Amino acid sequence: MADPGSGGNLPLALPPAPEEASSSASSGNPSHPHSLQGLLQMAVTACPGDPEPPPEPMTEERRQWLQEAMSAAFRGPREEVEQMKSCLHALGLPTPHAAGEDELAADQQEREGALELLADLCENMDNAADFCQLSGMHLLVGRYLEAGAEGLRWRAAHLIGTCSQNVAAIQEQVLGLGALRKLLRLLDRDPCDTVRVKALYAISCLVREQEAGLLQFLRLDGFSVLMRAMQRDVVKLKVKSAFLLQNLLVGHPEHKGTPVFHGDGPAAGGLLIRTEHSPFPRARAGGTLWPGDRFSPKGSGSAGRLSWG
Question: Compositional bias of type Low complexity: which residue ranges (predicted)?
Answer without folding.
Answer: 19-35
